[in-house]
Amino acid sequence: MTPAKVALVTGGGGGIGSEICRHLARAGYRVVVNYQSNQAKAQSTLESLAHEGHTLFQASVTDSGPLAAMAEHVAGQYGHLDLLVNNAGVTTPVPHGDLDALSDEWIDRIMQVNFRGAFATIRAFKPLLLKGTNPVVVNISSVAGRTGVGSNVAYCASKAAMDSMTRSLGRALAPAIRVVSLSPGWVQGDYAGNFPPEYIAEQIRRTPLNRLARAADVAAAVLAIAESFAFSTGCIFPVDGGRELL
């Protein structure tokens, strides 16, 4: 019998992460839900997953020790990894022109989580991915990495760095492991809810498909990349409703 496919989703308790976990579980994956601090949300995500065999693991993607422990957990529980979704990320809204408002602390934190954390997770799980079936890494990026328009300058830079890493590792890890970036535009959810309705309406107006992305759009794209785009690597898949066209 072919063993079930295994997926790890970092930041799995968040709005996008939890939806990715649910999509993958329904598709038959055994899902490892990673979280850093909000155990209640991660536990709720775990309990919402279809089928059995899923697990929860607390680890910061910025700390190599816990990442190694999480890799040991996955090795002991499943023996391999087929899909790694680097979804953990942080940001804070800062006007791009207000250079003094973007503190050194926030710059460092954003780059550590969004870029370095994704790289460190790939590094920690490379041996298990090599044991998987058609293994793939999906980095959850953002249209901000290409447009330079986003919550702050450091966030845009971190996603551009993630996309550059995707290209580099898509080449370096081929043909054994595929590496792809998934690049949403604005996503409807808790973060978008922090902005005034008129601002969100403007973002919708600037999107040719005339709505924000939903977490389910991102999750469906992750599954499609893993299951249907087997000859794609080192590339950036947009899920932005055509945002760059306007």
Question: How are the strands ordered across the major sheet?
Answer: 3-2-1-4-5-6-7
Q: What is the beta-strand fraction? A: 5-15%
The helix tally amounts to 8
Reported for the largest beta sheet, the result is: 7 strands, parallel
Radius of gyration, in angstroms, nearest whole number = 17 Å
Mean of residue pLDDT values:
95
CATH superfamily: NAD(P)-binding Rossmann-like Domain
Task: Give me the secondary-structure category.
Answer: alpha/beta
Oligomer: single chain
Order of helices and strands: EHEHEHEHEHHEHHE
For the record, the CATH class is Alpha Beta
Task: Itemize the secondary structure elements and their pairings.
Elements: E1 6-9, H1 15-26, E2 30-35, H2 39-47, E3 55-58, H3 64-77, E4 83-86, H4 104-129, E5 136-140, H5 144-147, H6 153-172, E6 178-184, H7 197-205, H8 215-227, E7 236-239
Parallel strand pairs: 1-2, 1-4, 2-3, 4-5, 5-6, 6-7
Helix pairs in contact: 1-8, 3-4, 4-6
Family: Belongs to the short-chain dehydrogenases/reductases (SDR) family.
Keywords: Oxidoreductase
InterPro entries: KR_dom, NAD(P)-bd_dom_sf, Sc_DH/Rdtase_CS, SDR_fam
